[in-house]
Amino acid sequence: MNKKYSIIFGAIVTTVLVTSCVSRGNNPGWEYAPDMYYSKGYEPYSQGDSNVINPYGMNMREPVAGTVALGKLDYKYPFENNGEGYEMAGTMLKMPEGVTLEDGRAQYMYGIYCTPCHGQEGNNDGEVFKKVSTLKPAWKGYSDAYIQTLPEGKIYHTLTYGKNNMGSHASVLKPTDRWKIVKYVKYLSNKGGVSAAPVAQDSAKTN
Fold this sequence. Notes:
This protein is mainly alpha-helical. It has helices spanning about 1-20, 85-90, 105-115, 115-120, 125-130, 145-150, 150-160, 175-190, 200-205.
């Protein structure tokens, strides 16, 4: 009887040791019910070896070359993120017609994304510049001749890609909102740093 139990015990130990060896390294070992972990359906943002139709196992198809998604035409930006693209934007990129400050959205968006560094009046006295002494703006404020004469296309280019210490705002500002902020920056510049009328909050927050 003892011999029988010894054989069973030995078989169990051997099985455990073999299983542990198999699961080492790059081998994940055995999986129970893998269908519970890996969907057999072609989910949009996943890929796998089972999809042999699209390249790289992608489930979503790439858009047809030269096409633009519906409603995304103004997201197409033709200038590269380099010095040449910056200069081209200054001479070739013009503000679209119909961009106004009347609905208050420009000041509202400026207050969210620009005030922390540049301040309410564009004097580069925002909380970030106050607290981080190593950040030194290249110009004193929007009333400087540099901003007054800076082409609108260059400001839009900077909002799109970022420049120097300023990062890109393309992920948080739609093209239409970027143009509104450009117009508001020019407004502050030409007014010598005097802000516009109070924001109409209800209309400013609409998309």
